[in-house]
Design goal:
globular, about 200 residues, 3-stranded antiparallel β-sheet, 5-stranded mixed β-sheet, about 35% helix, single chain, alpha/beta
Amino acid sequence: IAPVETKDLRDDPETVLDAAGELADAPPDAQPDAVVLALARDRYTAQLLASLTRAVPQASLLTGDGVLVGQPLVAAAGSQPAPLEAIAPQAPRGAAAARGVRILDRIARDQGAALATPAALWGYESVRVVLDAIRTAQRDAGPADRAEIIRAALRPRVRHSPIGTYRVRRSGAVEGLPMALYRLRGDRFEYVRSLL
């Protein structure tokens, strides 16, 4: 995959419209096949999606679970809903499910039911990976070197966790965790299928 461009959008409509316009003005060989939106839903999300749909109609629009929060996603005035797909963490299954449920129950009790989502389990596991890497990198109870922590976190291995069993590859890529694919239909996201 060859990235065409990376853009950091500020929270204002002008930046949103500029980003879509710049993609539309790119030469044909630099037109994207897909646009990945790493964002949480805000008041400009629908406007951004409408602008991207007009500017790069051939591109697939993909995002993470931050845009799933706060249904419905109302299309910008005078526009059709964007063909948007979102990928989100999926609740664990099998042996990890009971452990994950216990952690989610604790999160719901201590921080509120709205935060007890599969994404919270992924955050929980992310912190566990970091803490385990710090412990592994520490020598004689002294401070751990940053490079040693990174090496420990990315060490190839199989981890058994509340989000399921997964493999960490030498590149740092993670394999084996199911994700859920959602598609925007009308003003709501609907579950499509599980991805591995």
